[in-house]
Design brief:
The chain is α/β, with parallel strands linked by helices. It contains nine helices and 13 strands.
Length: about 300
């Protein structure tokens, strides 16, 4: 039995890095995971135990090691089925473009809640900075998140801004790049990756097997012990698994105020003496964050509960 790291999958086949060799694996039987209903039992970033065939080129995945964390999203509206995007993430980079294409605050906040729930640190990358005529507007929006405690990077492939910093930061770990389709995830990954051949393994053979690049996340090895995860463009980000009373815990600036609310179990909706609502009124907290909060509770979680 050998331990390996899942690089990519089509849902049926898995490319697993074992002792620096890419082995094409399949999954025999069912792998049971604690009550989690997912469309994919194994995701990029998972560590697995593999029984490797004698020729060393193929293998069977026997078991999966416990995940340190993962990013999950509801795969279809009104469905309880969820998709694990990637697991065992050291830091997530959320690539944000405010206009090309538009990334909505709701999308950003849902991603942040998801990451907070599993304690995955997030950096917001405000990308394609070369394209903005009004840089100040982007910075003003970004500073709202900086104030809450998220790291911010401004970047552009065109001007080179932020690229060197980003390349230096990704060191030792699995670094996820997420964001809306067309935001520039794949471009950023190739820009910071010094390896000429970032795809290890026989890609020509692999790419015939399905649309893995558009459906599933995939790992790239940047250097030893450093992996970058490219994710498929996602249009929406439905939340799962979070009890509605807990959503407020994953908005750090609201959670901080909870002890000042009149009720210790305040949901910050219409309770009297709510410190969060006062903070929204005084401008200390952002209204757009609050709108996302309410929409997650009233929209996502209601749909999830009813399904
Ligand atoms: N102007 C500009 N365009 C960029 C930048 N980065 C990426 N793009 C373009 O944005 C489009 C989408 O990029 P891609 O990396 O495929 O996005 P992904 O869907 O998030 O992987 C492509 O046409 C890129 O050339 C940038 O910094 N500035
Ligand atoms: Mg891409
Ligand atoms: Zn409150």
């Amino acid at each position: 039995m050998k331990k390996g790291l899942i690089f990519r999958s089509t849902g049926k086949h898995y490319e697993v890095l074992i002792d620096d060799v890419m082995v094409s694996c399949s999954l025999r039987g069912k792998i049971r995971l604690s009550g989690l209903r997912t469309t994919n039992p194994i995701a990029a970033g998972d560590w697995v135990q593999v029984e490797v065939a004698e020729d060393g080129k193929s293998g069977n995945i026997i078991s999966i090691e416990e995940r340190k964390n993962y990013i999950i999203r509801r795969s279809v509206n009104l469905s309880k089925e969820a998709q694990i995007i990637a697991s065992n993430i050291t830091r997530a980079y959320l690539v944000v473009t405010l206009t090309f294409p538009e990334t909505s605050p709701g999308f950003i906040d849902r991603f942040l809640v998801s990451a907070e729930a599993y304690r995955i640190p997030v950096t917001l990358i405000f990308h394609k900075m070369d394209q903005y005529e009004n840089r100040e507007a982007v910075e003003e929006f970004a500073k709202m998140y900086e104030k809450i405690g998220y790291q911010i990077i401004y970047s552009s492939i065109e001007s080179g801004e932020g690229i060197e910093q980003l390349a230096k930061e990704v060191e030792n770990g699995v670094f996820l790049f997420s964001g809306q389709s067309g935001a520039g995830k794949s471009s950023l990954i190739s820009a910071i990756n010094q390896n000429d051949d970032i795809r290890i393994g026989d890609v020509s053979e692999w790419s015939g097997k399905g649309q893995h690049t558009t459906t599933f996340a995939e790992l790239f090895q940047m250097k030893e012990n450093t992996y970058l995860v490219d994710t498929p463009g996602i249009k929406g980000f439905g939340l799962v698994e979070i009890p509605r009373e807990e959503v407020g815990h994953y908005f750090p600036e609201f959670f901080q105020l909870l002890s000042e609310c009149k009720f210790s179990n305040c949901m910050h909706l219409n309770e009297p003496g709510c410190a969060v609502i006062s903070a929204i009124h005084s401008g200390a907290c952002s209204e757009s964050r609050y709108n996302s909060y309410v929409s997650i509770i009233e929209d996502d979680l209601e749909k999830y509960r009813k399904s």
